[in-house]
Amino acid sequence: MNGDQPAVVPLYMRCLWTWLLLVALVMMSTSGCRRPLKAKEAALTPEAAAEFAANRANQEVSQRLGQAPFSADKGEAMLQRDSSGKQHWQWVARVGNGTSDLSATVSFEPDGSQPSVSILTLVSEERQALPVHPDPPIFAPVQRF
């Protein structure tokens, strides 16, 4: 080849390089993108999630105690992200129940699937103070044998 003439690149090589460059650009531009929430997943509002959680907690308590003490306004539903970056709803509430309290924690997927319900009974016992002796002995009597 002479130094005066430009190198001729075959047409198929130019097309191949163009396609490879285009594919590389598309892959780099989409690699950092998170999967957007589907419309079905984003359908629950915080109010709807709290209502759903209260109903699930009441189902669990009614099986055990025959009661339904929880309501949506007793707790707040929060959309949280776990360590892997996956989102889930969590609702925590506490209500009085006679001499004890009931604590409910309900977690579920953004679309309401896979609910997990934990109900705890919290009991506080009233502690009575020990009686105080009016005149406590300073020294115990010594017995001799």
Structural commentary:
The protein is an alpha+beta fold. The protein has a domain at 41-123. Helix content is 28%, strand content 24%. The chain has a 4-stranded antiparallel beta sheet, covered by helices on one side. A hairpin with a 5-residue loop joins strand 1 and strand 2. It is elongated, with a radius of gyration of 34 Å. Mean pLDDT is 77; it is low at 33-41.
Largest sheet, in brief, is: 4 strands, antiparallel
Radius of gyration: 34 Å
Kindly report how far apart the N and C termini lie. 127 Å
Overall pLDDT score: 77
Residue share in helices? 25-40%
Strand order across the largest sheet? 1-2-3-4
Number of strands: 4
N-to-C series of helices and strands: HHEEEE
Low-confidence stretches: 33-41
Structural class: alpha+beta
The coarse silhouette is: elongated
Number of helices: 2
Strand content: 15-25%
How are the elements arranged and paired?
Layout: H1 11-30, H2 46-65, E1 75-81, E2 87-97, E3 100-108, E4 116-123
Antiparallel strand pairs: 1-2, 2-3, 3-4
Features of the shown structure:
145 residues, alpha+beta, 4-stranded antiparallel beta sheet, 2 helices, 4 strands, elongated
Task: Put the structure in a nutshell.
The chain is α+β, with helices and mostly antiparallel strands. It has helices spanning 11-30, 46-65; strands at residues 75-81, 87-97, 100-108, 116-123.
